[in-house]
Amino acid sequence: MPSSAFPSWLECLTCSRKYDLGKVRYTCDCGGLLDLKRDLGKADGRKLVSLWEKRWGLKSGVESSGVWRYRELILDVPDSKIITKQEGNTRLYPAGRAGKYAGIKNFLLKHEGENPTGSFKDRGMTCGITAAGIYNAKCVACASTGNTSASMAAYAATAGIKSVIFIPSGKIAYGKLAQALAYGGLTLQIDGNFDDAMTLVQEICGKLNIYLLNSINPFRIEGQKAICFEILQQLDWKVPDWFVIPGGNLGNNSAFSKALMELHELGIIDKIPRIAVIQASGANPLYTMWKNNKPFAPVKNPETIATAIKIGNPVSWEKSLRGIKWSNGVVEQVTEQEIMDAKAMVDAAGIGAEPASCCSVAGAKKLVEAGIISKDESVVGILTGNVLKDPDAVINYHTDQLKNIKGTFANSPKSIKATLEAVKAAL
């Protein structure tokens, strides 16, 4: 399988063994994670930027996608093989009330919830499903807390490929489950959590010749890099001081650091922004490792209202850690109350996002208060999912019905009589 406009291969993060791209492979023989590597030695960064600028605003074709615009650093495949829903092209909003809440003057929010299925997963899935087609896969599968399954089912339906989804029992946001069912995915709810589902799906894919599309798949990460490329293009290639990113399975911040490494190698950027990864305190293995300077240890029974990041044993933790160290970044955790209060501010700014997204705002606020981020620094926070992904969390917060979480900024509905006087009193 061709991979990019440059000589490419898969390389083990642990032992550095190299593999060509002709065979489906997710991990090294030693068990280590695989990276897609490129030889960028003869590349001209200025010509690439010029090419990407010419593609900006295209109305049709694969390069109108906010992923395939950067195809030279994504996958090198013919147009006819690319499965795209014109993903990406998401907005970069001034944070407004959420910025004041976080205490940051120059705070922008990149809203990946504006993708076709409502989350950033579409960026990686266009590459994953395209790769599945190149490898002649007839069926694809993933374990999911919701967003991955919604995205995979939609892209598989577009490609005419069968999809199988393994979800953990209980506490799956209905907005996400509804999408997986609507798009035709065979949905199997297992007795266990996401990490149990992840273990099972890897075994199933290996034994039944099904193509695996969790973020352990190296091509998924390639598509997610385009979030970073697109932000920088929206900023005219001026690099912010910080990227603040929610951390669940840790593929997203792994993709960001990989994108930045490639842009830096190409000479497109000369400043390295710091990366902050924010985890929920009930699903915080990377934070615990980072804070205590101890070996990585999974969280056995992760728990958080931010269901998209309720993951105790993230597959991409080694890639994530590599990027954090390279960028002189940090890891922070936030409580359930901090997540939902930050979400209320994002929503009240007219932007809106699912709970996991708002870890970026809650975490930024916490890092400002700790003196790690200066209020005068430029910060871009990533919102990973649409506000309608988890409507129950919104309604229960604003009606003060969440267990152990107070509706600090609740905007509860009011029952009134159907009279002019009652409306005036309510106003």
Explain what you see.
37% of the residues lie in helices and 15% in strands. The longest helix has 17 residues, at 218-234. The strands form three sheets. Strands 4-5-13-10-11-12 form a six-stranded mixed sheet, with helices on both faces. Strands 8-7-6-9 form a four-stranded parallel sheet, sandwiched between helices. It has a three-stranded antiparallel sheet with strand order 2-1-3. The protein starts with 7 loop residues before the first strand and ends with a helix. With 427 residues, the protein is of the alpha/beta class.
What is the average per-residue confidence, as pLDDT, rounded to a whole number? 95
Report the end-to-end length measured between terminal Cα atoms: 63 Å
The CATH class assignment of the domain at 92-118 and 218-398 is: Alpha Beta
Looking at the overall shape, the CATH architecture of the domain at 92-118 and 218-398 is: 3-Layer(aba) Sandwich
Main beta sheet? 6 strands, mixed
Tell me the strand order in the biggest sheet.
4-5-13-10-11-12
Q: Which descriptor suits the 3D outline?
A: globular
Q: How large is the share of residues in beta strands?
A: 5-15%
Alpha-beta content class: alpha/beta
| Total beta strands | 13
Residue stretches low in confidence (pLDDT < 50, at least 5 long) are none
Q: What is the topological layout?
A:
Blueprint: E1 8-12, E2 18-19, E3 34-38, H1 45-55, E4 92-94, H2 97-102, E5 106-111, H3 121-134, E6 139-143, H4 147-159, E7 162-168, H5 174-182, E8 186-190, H6 194-208, E9 211-212, H7 218-234, E10 242-246, H8 251-265, E11 274-280, H9 285-292, H10 317-326, E12 330-334, H11 336-348, H12 359-369, E13 378-383, H13 391-398, H14 420-426
Parallel strand pairs: 5-13, 6-7, 6-9, 7-8, 10-11, 10-13, 11-12
Antiparallel strand pairs: 1-2, 1-3, 4-5
Helix pairs in contact: 3-4, 3-7, 4-5, 7-8, 8-10, 11-12
